[in-house]
Amino acid sequence: LVFGEWQREPSHREIQEFLLALAVCHTVIPEAPEGGAEPTEANVKYMAESPDELAFIVMARELGMFVYKRSADFIYIRQKNKRGGHEDIRYEILAVLDFTATRKRMSVVYREEGGAVKMFCKGADNVIMARLSQRKSDNRYTAATVEHTNEYAQHGLRTLFFTKKEVDQDSFPEWERQYQEARRSLFDRSAKLDEVAKEMEKDLVLLGATAIEDKLQEGVPDTIAKLARADIRLWMLTGDKVETAINISFACSLLHATSTCYVLSSLTLQE
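-> structure tokens emitted (271 positions)
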């Protein structure tokens, strides 16, 4: 897929949408080069809230979707084409539905230069799966993606689902009015924004998934092993999938080969 070779693939349109989701659905800020120089892949640096966000934007850049500028209302992407050149495309950012520990997802509603309004949404697999479209034609990659992410989780990788949605032009103005009203609210702002987001974040179409290695800081396994030998009880809190949590527990020496592992997966007291 590197060097824009994905454009020669039979599924190049689907790949392009997935890479565009990486390049648009985030809060990363590109830093303009000093002295007013022309932005290039070499001189544009990124300010990101998390290493994951940075990894997504760098991956998009390496595969031909270079985010080189961002303002309050627009994001600018330099996209490589089949002819070996590139074209600069501007997307208008209409709404950013932020990630929270409760929502476990984030979305960006944007307008293309042609006027179409669309949305990208990314989030935890269980949260996204509950919001996917029920149309069979929209679920072409769901089974394969779930299979792959389960495999990634068993290797200790942190996974994320990426989706798209074409927004109805007739109903969007009313939704946007409710969104702006919720943003300006002085009372229960988070709850109101969440309700508005739920109306938009449904009937999603799965584009694919990412898997990122959650590398431990140096010395973590040794430190945990020493604490355990001192008979200190240890707990690890995580929002990851069960398979990922178990794998990371082994990696950080919280569990070892002779440990007995019990998985409590019930959701109710009766279960």
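The beta strands are 29-31, 45-47, 65-70, 74-80, 86-97, 105-111, 117-123, 157-166, 205-213.
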